[in-house]
Amino acid sequence: MNEPVLQTTGLARSFTQGGQTIDVLRGVNLSIAPGEIVALLGPSGSGKSTLLQAVGLLEGGFSGSIRIAGEEVAKLDAHGRTITRRDRLGFVYQFHHLLPDFNAIENVVLPQLVHGAETVPAQERATALLTALGLGHRLTHRPSQLSGGEQQRVAVARALANRPALVLADEPTGNLDEHTSQVVLAEFLRLVRGEGSAALVATHNERLALKMDRVVRLHEGMLECA
Length: 226
Known about the structure:
Blueprint: E1 6-17, E2 20-32, E3 37-41, H1 48-55, E4 63-68, E5 71-72, H2 78-88, E6 89-92, H3 104-115, H4 119-132, H5 148-160, E7 166-170, H6 178-195, E8 198-203, H7 206-209, E9 214-219, E10 222-225
Parallel strand pairs: 3-8, 3-9, 6-7, 7-8
Antiparallel strand pairs: 1-2, 1-4, 4-5, 9-10
Protein name: ATP-binding cassette domain-containing protein
GO cellular component, one term: membrane protein complex
GO biological process, one term: lipoprotein localization to outer membrane
């Protein structure tokens, strides 16, 4: 049996606010298999983003175990976390966070160069991903020249540029209208599956969640099957 791409055990996070302790995550146990796409459901404030920040090694203060591709990463130092994010993870956010002074292809090339790729292969990879997302005619357009859906497609290509084992997506279509959301999510799922990556996708949209392989739900800081 293949080792999980992601496995969390007893993952917990608490905040102190107004003299009170708020338990956002209470012993979250989650396992995602290679190539599996899992929807993370829950209302706003349920802890979805907090869970993704923990798994993405973007914030400290958590307790419990996080294993990515078999490696315990919860206690890595800052350098180790950076290397893990660079080599094994891809990120897509509600707001695309593209670099405004770079065009579409440059936004997808740059993370590859940081990863150590040569320029020509990185450009070829970026072109292939953007073309697969229907942006072959928009390669040299900057974010300000692209629609919201197009910008998010570039963000998807950027997330997959370094062939991550796991893609983390936080409300990736939350800033788009319903029709565009469905189109972008369909392209996201098709491309992630084609690349063989696994994904954890936080959303509040039940209908979109059902298009994924499995649905889990955060309820009062604990994870349960939907």
